[in-house]
Structure formats: structure tokens, C-alpha cells
């Protein structure tokens, strides 16, 4: 009886290992399919969107693949749990055979999680390295200058502090600043702040980075691949009017961008340059907030507070 039981254990472990390999094979099969289509079919599994840059696509693919892997592991574990509940349910008052340990099972339980974590770490490191990678010769360099409580975008003729600004856009309380950029080009952002810490964030880029005052400059690059207009915000609480720090990212074709930048260099305003390429001259994804406290609800609440 003992010999039979011992012989059955390796076979059971082999079957379980086979199920694990089948799950891994299913993951490889799914990775060969369209991850984007699979993600959309299930609402992106909580991920906001696929994004509008090449870097965002890689983060999206990593997220969807990780969730698929987690679901495969979860289904496998749930299956084992229910199988044990049914297979070893109580059938009488006699106790089942008591065993101290099962070496093949314990090896499987130890090795499998290590392999899963190692694979996830490997692909996470690859995507993170790619997202943070800087090229030697970016196609466009934009200096992002944050200040209470607006943005200034300077188009530069080179990298670093010694480069020259060839065109600039700055926002105001009445006009949302537009950051116009082309598709298909490597765009380097060099961030600096004039006062406190801010954070440059475009949700559709699936990426944000803090903007520090002083000599420390955060630098990153993106390659946009989808034309459109996308709201941008400050993602770091920076004072009273933090919520008013908005801008709009306008992604256009390279030809339109060249025309826009040429118009800016010739002295045109941002709105005039936008009209020159046939685009709406003002932001369409957001609008300036009322900073003057002149709304009727504000006046009424203050009248009541004053006891009038």
C-alpha cells in the first residue's frame, strides 16, 4: 500500500506540472495574438487606455500580459482547490491517510512562483528601461517650465541649458497653453520649475514626471503615434490654484508641425500659428477655470457667511 501510494505521488505531481506547462503554453499563445484586441474585449482589465505613444503601448502590453498570466495562475489554483474539496471530501468517520510531506509538490510550489516572479521582473525591467531610454539625437527638444500656476513650453534648438529657445508658448488665467508636437518623432522633454515642485502629466501618455525647481532637471522622451488633442495637468499639489494648472497636448502630422513652428519663429502667436495649419486656435479638451470668484454661488455663500 505504501509503495503504491509513493508511486502515485510523482505521477500526480507530473500531472500538476503538466497543467502548469499547459498554462504557460496558453500564455505564449495569447502573447502571439493581438494583446490590444484581447485587452479591449475585457475593458483593458482596469488599464486606462492603450495610450498615444510607443512607450505607452509597451506599458499597456505588459499590463495586459501580466493580468492574463495572473488569471491563468488563478484558474489553475482555484481548480486545484475545488478538485481537492470534491476529491477528498469526508465520506465517513475514518481518517484519511496522513502524510508528513510530499517532496514533488513542495518543489513545484517553490519553483513555480520563483519562475513567475523572475519572468515578470524580466519583462518589467525591459519595459521600464525602454520607457526611460534617451536617444543621442532627439528630433525635437521641448523645455517644460512650470510655475504658479501655469505652464511655459519652449521649443529648443538643442539639448541642455545652453541650447536656445526658438519659439515659446505660455499660458495665462484666460488662455489654456497649447503644446503642439508631431507624430513619429523622438521628442525630448526637459523639465524645470520656477518655484515649487509640479508634475507634468498627460493621462493619454500613461506617464507623468515631477518638475523640480533649481538645477535638477527631469528628462524623458516619447514618440507619439496618434494625432489628436489631449488634456494635460499638474499632478502634484502645488498650492492654492493647483487645479488650474492645465494645458492641452496637440499632436499633429510632421508637416503641420513644421508649418506651425515656422509660423511661431516668424513671430505669430500660438493662436495664429494654429489657424495657419487649419486647427482650432484654442483648447478644446478643457477650459480656464474661474479665478475671480465671481460666480453667483460663491457670492451667495459669502453673503450668508457674513450674516447679510
Mean pLDDT: 83
Q: Label the structural class.
A: alpha+beta
What gross morphology would you assign?
elongated
Strand order of the main beta sheet, please? 3-2-1-5-8
List low-pLDDT spans. Answer: 1-8, 16-32, 297-308
Pfam families: COX2, COX2_TM
Domain Cytochrome oxidase subunit II copper A binding: 137-263
EC number: 7.1.1.9
Transmembrane segments: 12-30, 62-86, 107-126
What's the gist of this structure?
With 308 residues, the protein is an alpha+beta fold.
Characterise this structure:
The protein is α+β, with helices and mostly antiparallel strands and about 300 residues long. The protein has 2 domains: about 1-130, no CATH class; about 140-275, Immunoglobulin-like. Helix content is about 45%, strand content about 20%. It is built from 7 helices and 10 strands. The strands form 2 sheets. The chain has a 5-stranded mixed beta sheet. Strands 4-10-9-6-7 form a 5-stranded mixed beta sheet. Strand 6 (about 200) and strand 7 form a beta hairpin. Helix 1 (about 1-30) runs antiparallel to helix 3. The longest helix has about 35 residues, at about 55-85. The protein is elongated and about 90 Å long.
Layout: helices, strands, pairs:
Blueprint lengths: L1 H31 L2 H7 L12 H34 L15 H30 L7 E8 L2 E7 L8 E6 L7 E5 L3 E8 L4 E5 L4 E5 L6 E6 L4 E7 L11 E7 L1 H12 L4 H7 L19 H10 L3
Parallel strand pairs: 1-5, 4-10
Antiparallel strand pairs: 1-2, 2-3, 5-8, 6-7, 6-9, 9-10
